[in-house]
Amino acid sequence: MTRLPFARLKAGFYSTFPPALSPTLLSLILLGVTPSFAQGAAPVLPPFPPGLFFPVDQGKAPTIPGATLQPSAPIFDFAGVPGWVQGTKVTNSMKVSIPKYEMLVIRGSHLRHHTIVIPPGGLYYDSSPARGEIPMTGSSDFILGKRYYFVDYDARIHVRNNVAIRQGRSTIVGNHLYTLLLPPIPKVVLNPVVHWQTFDGVSIRPWAFTERWEHPSPSQPDQRAMTYLQGVIHTVDKKGVTFASLTGTAIHREWWAKNLLFEGVAKAGQQWVSHGQGVRIDRIDPGAKRVTVSYLQNGKKVFSKTLVAKEDPTLPENPDLRQKMIAIHGTEAVVLWPHGAIENGSVRLWIFGGVEEWKTNHPLPGLTHYAYFPIACPIAHHIGGMLYNQRSLHLVPGQAVSILGGYAKIKVESIQGAKVKFLVETKTGKTPEFSKSGNIDGVIGEGRAAHGILGSLDTTDLALSQDLAVKE
Prior knowledge:
single chain; ten-stranded mixed β-sheet; 4 helices; 472 residues; eight-stranded mixed β-sheet
């Protein structure tokens, strides 16, 4: 029997954050903003001027069943599911190479009447890039083994007011789970110790969550605000903390494309047509920095839009400016280059085909019983896409159960008392046979979420757990 090593946690995985930004934006982030002691903290403090790049929603954001579940003494198998993407480097149009991972997580599973039951949200697939992704960069990810191009998204900042968290309890804001580990201890720990994770498990340290005070003082110092994840503390006691406001990020929908039809510099009159559908550049106005594009159906124009090329250091994060530079119609999209798109009478752009709108908490096209949930990082970049089970799964010994539309199968080999043996298989091969007590919770594969889950658990207990064993 061999225990799985934890040494890979030390490999500097978290050094990939923050994601690629323009030098101007990065310098603004690093400056930070600290409110003075003379005034109370605002509910949301922008991490960089000229203001918030994303709309602010009050109240609850989309959530998932089992959002607060944590894997119980999970098996970690960093080798991943056979045939799934593990560390494949993809270079986007900005010449940034980002490793991509696909991982499988099981949590909340339990043994009932000689059957393993996985509750809704207890099994999820995660497409987990090693850095953040944003539109207008030519970024792409693998979803169920297929490559898709990131066209656009609807990211939000969510704010909840008057949120009380007791010690050891959790609350949700956006797609972020906040857990109070320790209330303030006078003269020892000045601020509450709050742990945060995204729904898929990412937990970037040390600075992603910021705490400030409604009434700051030398004995109640503010932390430097660095992201959109912020808590303004109203009151504290020995049992917990009440936040005047608690902030998180979430993504409500995304647009992904199956095909990249064109990337480069084009002139007026050029067109791209496939299977009767196409895009044509009708006119380029260099003086006004405008380009008019038409969408074609069987040779006839069915829609047109004039795009405006903007020069702004907040691109491509700024959604208001992106709307002026992206045109999506049907299954095709035109996206202008974020800087210097129109020069010398030409336009630099991307043209995508097979565009699909993926709504949060809805199944992807052609996939049933599994809903999509995109993950937003602390500055609202896309850092993962979950597919979670909407219905309970029941696994009996000897039967292989298909998951994720046939992308893999889970097979419980045997159940003897509380001891369960199981494996995951694909058309490519099988994982080792895992042995667990009372459940089949596990993390199979790498990625930021896998390392976040590992870093959030008590690794001392894990190192002593007999559940962390695999059959040679």
